[in-house]
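Researcher: Here's the sequence for the chain we discussed earlier.
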Amino acid sequence: MSRMNRLRQCFDTLATTGRTALVPFVTAGDPSVDTTVDIMHALVDAGADIIELGIPFSDPMADGPVIQLSSERAIERGVSLTTVLDNVHSFRQNNQNTPVVLMGYLNPLYRMTFSVFATKAATAGVDAVLVVDSPPEESSEFEACLKQADISMIRLVAPTTTAERMRLIAKNAGGFIYYVALKGITGAGSSNNETASSLQRIDTMRELSGLPVAAGFGIKDAESAAAWAQVADAVVIGSALVTRLAECSSSEQACDTVKSFLAPIRTAMDNVHK
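Model: Thanks. This is the structure I predict for it:
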């Protein structure tokens, strides 16, 4: 199954069953280098449909304190972009079906060179990338390398994005659209009150791009996940999970934490569609 097909198959299957995709985010290398692959498998066992794996970076400007600190800890442990790709490759030894999206910033990819990164990511089994500081106007070289490697480029849409820019983003996006569910950084506040006003914007992005729309930023528990599951095709939850994982001292504890945290969220999201 190709990388683009893996994402498409995931959303097609969910659509036939009337379910919303659960997309947990974790930072590679946190709480330890050796736990990442085990955590990825635990995420799937706990009901994750897509995994968003963070590439540690020294200046993650779109992320709140929780994910910033997780990046710092991972970097202190020596986690690099190569480590992250190795994690995905190891995960693929036992899981060929769950899409993996890498989330990060442009600098590490640029340093590796876009063409080398795209080739290595494809070999490892990466399905898509989300690079928050790579706008469509400045991404032609990067996008060309990803396209050649059959890797999707996830694009962000914010509550403040203009209609004109939404059309530009829609033309350059792949995999799915990531809708920022609130104004601010990841993990900031609650997004429950913004779902109603976002419904039209999400529908517009679906129409413009022909892609599913995932909602993220500020979604932190079963209640907020269920609210967004009513309007989006996928729900991304990160900071709340990263906070809990930071307290784990072993792989077994981390995997248990993943399952206990995601179980009520998965149930709440599925109950929305019953």
